[in-house]
Design brief:
Elements lengths: L1 H26 L10 E2 L12 E7 L7 E12 L5 H4 L11 E4 L13 E7 L13 E10 L4 H4 L4 E4 L4 E10 L5 E12 L9 E2 L16 E8 L14 E8 L9 E8 L10 E8 L2 E3 L10 E3 L5 E6 L3 E6 L3 E5 L7 E6 L6 E8 L2 E6 L6 E2 L3 E2 L6 E7 L13 H32 L1
C-alpha cells in the first residue's frame, strides 16, 4: 500500500509539473524572444523599424523615376482581432511607407555586375506614432501595387512588383515618465518576393547589424527591364543591337559570305524570357529574305510579313553576312549579353569595332585567324559589332608588268656573260691547234 501511495504521489507531482510548464509556454507564446525580436537597451532608446526597397535592373539601364508605396494593415492587439480593437491601433508613420527613385540613383558597385542593385531604406515606421496603451500590436506589411502607371501600361518597359508579406509584432511598454515606448520588435516573413511561402525571423532595424548586412531585412525587391525601342520598331530605322560586315582591300570579294556564330543571353531578371529574339537581315536600306544567311529552320515571319532569323537565347546560332549586310535586332532588352565569333576567312585580316551604349572599342585580328567580340552587352544607346575583313594583295601567278625593266636588265647581264664565255672557249681551241 505504501509503495502504491508513493507512486501515486509521484505521478501527481509529475502531472502538475507538466501542466505548469504548459501554462508557462502559453503565457510566453508571444514573448519577444520567440520572434527573434530586437529589444531596446532602455526606455529612452526605443526600437526603430524601417523598410528596405531593392530596385534591380540589368547592366546599362538608367534608373527610372518610380515611387513605391507600402501598406501597414492592423492585424491584432493583445491577440484580439475584432474590428473594434483593430481600430484602436495607430497608423504607422506614413512618410516611412513610401520610397522613390530617380536617374540620379546608381548602383554603388564599381564596376557594376550584370544586375545592378540600388537599395534604399525608409524612415522609422514608429516615428511620431503614439500607441494608446502598453501591449502587443501586430501589423501586416506588404507592397501596394501597381503604383507607376506609365511603366505599368508600357509595352517596352516592365516593372515586377514584390509579393513579399511580413508580420511586424510591436511590443509596447509603459514609460516611467508616462506614455509608452516601443520595447521590442519582432518580424517574420510570410511570403517572399515571388509569392512563395517564407519562414524566418528578420531584423527590421535601420542599417542592419552593420557587419553581415547593412539594411533592414524587411525588404521588398522590384525588378525593372526595358527595351530601348518604340512599341512597333522598324528594322531599318530602329535597332537595339546589330552585327554588320564590311569587306575592304583591293582584292576583297564583296560577294563572299562570311561565317558567324552568335550566343545571346537574356538578363536573368527577365521573367518568361522568349526562346529566341528576332534578327532581320538589312541590305541597301531594306529588309531582305535571310534564306542565304542561315538554315531554313531558323527563319520566321513577323506580323508584317517580314522574314527574320530566330536567334536563340539558350545556345549558339549560326549565320552569314556579306559586304554591306547587317543582322539587326529590334526587341532585345537592355542588358542583354552577347558574343559574336567570326570563323576563319582565308587570306583576310579581320577586325571588329564593338560599340556599347555609343562608346566604341576596336578589337584587331590577324590574317587567316578567327575573331571574337568577347562577352558584351547592349546598353540604351547605340550597340553594334561591326566586322571588317581586309584583303590588300594576292600572290602573283605570272609576270608582273611593273617588274619587266628589272627582268630585262638581269637577262641582258646573263646574256653578256654567256657570250663572253663562248668567245673565250673558241680562242683556247684555236691556240691549241696551231701549236700542233
Amino acid at each position: 500500500m505504501l509503495r502504491k501511495s508513493k507512486l501515486r504521489t509521484l505521478f501527481l507531482l509529475t502531472l502538475v509539473l507538466v501542466v505548469s510548464l504548459a501554462g508557462v509556454t502559453t503565457a510566453f507564446a508571444q514573448s519577444p524572444n520567440d520572434y527573434g525580436a530586437i529589444v531596446a537597451p532602455d526606455e529612452d532608446n526605443p526600437v526603430q523599424a524601417t523598410i528596405t526597397k531593392n530596385l534591380r535592373m540589368p547592366i546599362g539601364t538608367t534608373t527610372p523615376s518610380v515611387t513605391f508605396h507600402f501598406l501597414a494593415t492592423p492585424i491584432s492587439v493583445d491577440g484580439r482581432t475584432d474590428e473594434t480593437d483593430r481600430n484602436t491601433m495607430p497608423d504607422l508613420n506614413p512618410a516611412a511607407l513610401t520610397v522613390s527613385f530617380t536617374a540620379a540613383d546608381v548602383d554603388p558597385t564599381d564596376p557594376p555586375t550584370n544586375i545592378m542593385s540600388i537599395r534604399k531604406e525608409t524612415g522609422d515606421l514608429f516615428y511620431g506614432v503614439t500607441f494608446p496603451h502598453a501591449g502587443i500590436f501586430v501589423y501586416e506589411i506588404r507592397e501596394l501595387r501597381p503604383t507607376n502607371l506609365g511603366i505599368d501600361a508600357s509595352q517596352t518597359e516592365w516593372l515586377y512588383y514584390s509579393e513579399a508579406v511580413y508580420t511586424l509584432t510591436v511590443y509596447v511598454k509603459n514609460h516611467s515618465d508616462g506614455g509608452t515606448f516601443v520595447h521590442a520588435v519582432g518580424t517574420r516573413i510570410i511570403t517572399d518576393d515571388l509569392g512563395e511561402p517564407g519562414n524566418g525571423k528578420l531584423d527590421p532595424t535601420p542599417g542592419g547589424n552593420g557587419e553581415d548586412y547593412f539594411f533592414s531585412q524587411m525588404a521588398f525587391r522590384n525588378d525593372y527591364v526595358k527595351i530601348d525601342n518604340p512599341e512597333d520598331p522598324d528594322p531599318v530605322e530602329d535597332t537595339t543591337l546589330f552585327v554588320s560586315k564590311t569587306v575592304a582591300g583591293d582584292f576583297g570579294d564583296r560577294t563572299q559570305y562570311f561565317d558567324f556564330t552568335m550566343t545571346l543571353t537574356v538578363p536573368e531578371i527577365v521573367r518568361d524570357a522568349p526562346p529566341h529574339y528576332r534578327a532581320y537581315i538589312v541590305e541597301n536600306g531594306a529588309v531582305i529574305d535571310p534564306s542565304n544567311n542561315t538554315a531554313a529552320g531558323l527563319i520566321g515571319t513577323d506580323a508584317e510579313g517580314l522574314r527574320y532569323i530566330r536567334v536563340s537565347t539558350s545556345g549558339e546560332t549560326d549565320f552569314t553576312l556579306r559586304h554591306g549586310q547587317k543582322l539587326v535586332f529590334v526587341d532585345t532588352p537592355v542588358g542583354t549579353r552577347y558574343t559574336v565569333n567570326e570563323d576563319v576567312a582565308a587570306n583576310y585580316t579581320p577586325n571588329v569595332t564593338v560599340t556599347t551604349d555609343g562608346v566604341g572599342v576596336n578589337i584587331p585580328g590577324t590574317i587567316n585567324s578567327p575573331l571574337s567580340t568577347g562577352n558584351q552587352f547592349a546598353g540604351e544607346g547605340l550597340n553594334s559589332a561591326t566586322f571588317t575583313n581586309t584583303r590588300d594583295s594576292v600572290t602573283p601567278t605570272g609576270l608582273n608588268l611593273n617588274n619587266l625593266p628589272f627582268v630585262g636588265l638581269i637577262a641582258l647581264g646573263i646574256g653578256g656573260l654567256v657570250a663572253f664565255l663562248v668567245v673565250k672557249s673558241r680562242k683556247r681551241k684555236y691556240y691549241t691547234i696551231t701549236d700542233q
